[in-house]
Task: structure prediction
Amino acid sequence: MLNTGYWMLVCGNFLSKHLLFMRCYIILTIATFLLFSCFNTSLKENNKASSSNQSKQSSFECDYANCKARSNILFKQYRTKPDSTRKQALLNNIRDSLFVCWYGTEWDFNGITEEPGRGKIACGYFVTTILRDMGVAVNRIKHAQCASEEMIGAVCIKNSIRRFSNEGISSFIEKIKLNGIGLYIVGLDFHTGFILNDGEDIYFLHANYTGKKVVEKEIAMMSSVLSTSEYKVIGRII
Result:
């Protein structure tokens, strides 16, 4: 004869364990869902922040012809009457439009493109093209191909030219600050570009032959290209 009490006890234990298992399974499932949701939200936020940072540059609609025309007007006004207001307006326009159009343009040692975002450009041609397009009298091809010190001597304000040998990057940046707000050309051991002191920070803008190998704007203090060059020569344009 079956022992009814015994089997009821067995069944009760089984159901109790089964219910405990189900509770654990449900709790684990909910916890996994919440963890995934948090991770997914965090990932979306990070992607959103990254996209936002990139869109600060990509959202700029570059009408390069208009940027050049505006820069030429402001440059002539500044040269006619070089006061601080006109100087800042010119620097802001070059920083926020003319340079921005070129960001991301590919670097190549033999690059000679005149259109930002199309083709490739070498560091010297980047400098002379920007100079020409902002209204500076420069021989785009000759000065792009000569030594950067020769180019600086030809187009920069004569009494602004300074040379540095084995100067630490911190000391170099401090001396740029002392020279005041302005746009400078810098010549390095094997490279050239612009130094911009806009009153907020010191930037190095160049067709970078390292990293992504594109035209970019760097915090000057953080630039490996700038800091590792043993020789530096600078001259003021604005």
